[in-house]
Predict the structure.
Amino acid sequence: MIHAAAQGKPYNCFVRPDTRIPFMAMPTGSTPSSNWLPAPADRLSRRIYNVGAFSPSAAEIRDLVVNAFSRAAIAFEPDLKRQGIVDTWPADVDDAAARRDWGFAPRYDLSRTFSEYLIPRSASATGDRRP
């Protein structure tokens, strides 16, 4: 959605608007090991941890893209085969153990990921951003 909007091209999303999958901004993904490595071993309840950040719907992503690129043309045309694949993925990740054991907390939420990380920084007076 973002790439098409930045290029001024229409985009047909291949999943339903209510489809959710876990996301994480790269800066959040690179910090977990630096957080748990110094944690006392007796505080770690496992060897492998899930970490997550946010789980937006496709419609929420579309809304953020349209907010950044007012002329974005995004439609939902679910592809049954691809939707079926995405439907087998978890809608969210349980990272309660990481939060409890070593204080994991995502550095970026959905809004900050879009405004500071994913959307190109240059913007015109209309709010449309171009790379």
In short: Residues 8 and 54 are 27 Å apart (CA to CA). The longest strand covers residues 11-13.
